Amino acid sequence: MKIIHLADAHLDSKMESKLDKSKAAVRRDEILDTFCNIADYADENGVRAVIIAGDLFDTSRARVGAVNRVRDAFEKHPGVLFYYLKGNHDETGYFESGSIPANLKIFDKEGIQNYSLTIPGGKKITITGIIPGEDGFDKAYTELNLEYESMNIVIMHGCADKYQGKDKADSIDLGRLKNRNIDYLALGHYHTFAEGELPSRGKYCYPGCIEGRGFDECGEHGFVLIDINEDDLSFDSKFVPFAKRNIYEIKADISECMTTPEIDKCISDAVKASDATSDDLVRIILTGEADVNIEKDFEHIKRNAVDRFFYAEVKDESKIAIDYDEYLHEASLKGELVRLLQSEEGLSEEEKGRIVRCAVQVLKGEEISL
After folding, report:
1. What domain count does the chain have?
2. The whole model's pTM is what?
3. N or C terminus of the chain: which is more exposed, having fewer CB within 10 Å?
């Protein structure tokens, strides 16, 4: 038996923090497409169930059209069961009781809820959803009681141990879930794929979000496919990349560059060395220590990068390198400035470098750009 584990789709996000309205609308629909395509994949590949471990939608104001598309994805595949656990971004009213598809099982009440899948031969897979209450998951830890003979999948949405977020919301104590007969702990809330051992017989897993939405969600995204041996209930699981677009941060060291064309080539080489394609969202970060005399048309560099990808931005984190010995005896305004700055204790080396850089540009009649 095959089961898909996904989480944090955040469907119908506005997507406008980086993208213009047109591209944001495209991206919003693409993420909906990806969710619907996963449902299609499940049906086409003999997957019995899809676990949605929280944050299916992004807010309570999801468009009616988006909710209808998701409902249609459920109804289109009646042979696939969908187990949907409410996350911290989810509302319970997306699917009214009279219109809930028969193959959609919703965990939306505080505490522990169970569903069972029976395998030919009498073996059982128990799927348990746990939603925190006012005291977080404390009550669930003490009340969780799973059968030893069953394969036990537990779904939770929150921050487990080392994956804690800044707000510490819905903290999950993996230590209190050890030796509880859990075979697979299906987690949501952390947006990057991660997995680990959960003694005595299981593992925990975050599948990550199905599509990256920002530069804090770089890399491949998709879902986890669980393949269960129906004879002995042993299983394997693997991450399946499935996103339409990926998000990358690419660093380009411009220490050896002296001109804008050389910087363009340095960026091109860094892009080629990455997995990024023209379909992706890319942040290019200029690094290294550039010569104070470098000719750098930053506006051109940004335009050149933007034209190559669905979305791109360029950040200049390079520093200005000053060889003080080079200017030690130079009889010029630039030499005098460098010597004065060398003895200035109130400025950092980075600040000194930028001051000299400005002076060089002024003396050359160039537009000042840091």
Report:
1. 2
2. 0.86
3. C
